[in-house]
User: What shape does this take?
Amino acid sequence: MKLHCLFLAASLGMSTASHAVLTAGLVGYFDFESSLTNQAAAVGSDYGGTFEDGSLTETDAITDYTVGASGGRSGNGLNVQVAGTTGSVNGVTIPIGFGGGQDLGASFTVSSWVNLDATTASNGSARYFVYEGLNNFDLSLSLRAVSGAAGINDIQVFTEGTSGAIAAQATYADLATPGEWVNIVQVYAAGATNTTISTYINGTLQGTMANANANISATGILLGRARGGTNNRHFDGMIDEVGLWNRALDQDEVTAIFTAGQNGQAIPEPAAALLGSLGLIALLRRRVR
Assistant: This one.
């Protein structure tokens, strides 16, 4: 029985370690439970820099964003409401940049859970942005009706080239049903001459594309809308469990994010898992005495 307990402890330890790997290089984790506080340190990130919080700016008469709204993927979430055909200047900014010299570096990963409103209204562009770079579209993710079955259910990825041109784009049709949660992970891997962008939807790799730039960059990320200056592309629905890593996650890690999210939590908390494991071991030890 003692050997069995030791084996179980080792197994639980390996399980905990496999979860803990998701906290390696975790620069930002926003669960939107009640605020825009960066929760990366709370879940055990080993990132040695400053954990920057997000900020909400609502400077006009339209209330577009509700932080801590009920109905998130796990607990509460960020609710983004359509801003009308003329749009607004409001937005959520995460001051965590990517590219050389920035917090996320040239190779990084962004994960988010999104749920477009099933009865979404027009925002003037019929393009609903999950996020973009603060002032460019090197990083760009949106939902719209482009191809496949009718409805705003297509996931679209863009990346910017020189002089504002489109370096690459991809559309993944019929993979985001309005009213249902979908997990989207984008992995940006910098090479010698370009950056490869891989898009995973619900844990499955859908495709890759390349930007002929080994160091795409922005000083921050806008959530729930397009980059500054484009005010009619706000999201309409819920965004939750946004994670930012300063490295390119692999397939196993992307799968772990999706699996955990399906169970109500996108970023496993190794501290909680360890406490649970130790509690089970203690219970077994009491039983064999």
In short: The chain has one domain: 24-268. The two ends are 10 Å apart (CA to CA). The domain at 24-268 is CATH 2.60.120.200 (Jelly Rolls). Helices lie at 2-20, 251-262, 270-288.
